[in-house]
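Final report, closing paragraph on structural work. Over the funding period we assembled a curated collection of sequence-structure pairs, and we close with a single example.
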Amino acid sequence: MPRKPKKPVPPPAGYLWTPDAARRIGLSVKTLWNYRALGRGPTSKPIGRKLAWPIEDLDAWLDAEMNPKPDADRAHESRPAEPRVRRGSRAAA
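Its predicted structure, as stored:
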């Protein structure tokens, strides 16, 4: 006897499943998974065999990506420009 198709289970209140979360922040599902594996993306919570993504965390992560805070330590890592040295100038000796 064939199985009846299962109805999709809605996510818990305040959460989205992975495809909806990826669509909300404008990433592909694969990129969202990669960011999760690298620890770069928003937080997720396993629920059964699926991952649920808190909507608040998605919005906060997207806001932080779009408006990064200036890092005071990184501002001093850059070197000043080197003075230009003219090479091969045809100066009369």
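The helical segments are 18-25, 29-38, 55-66, 72-75. The radius of gyration is 25 Å. We thank the funder for supporting this effort.
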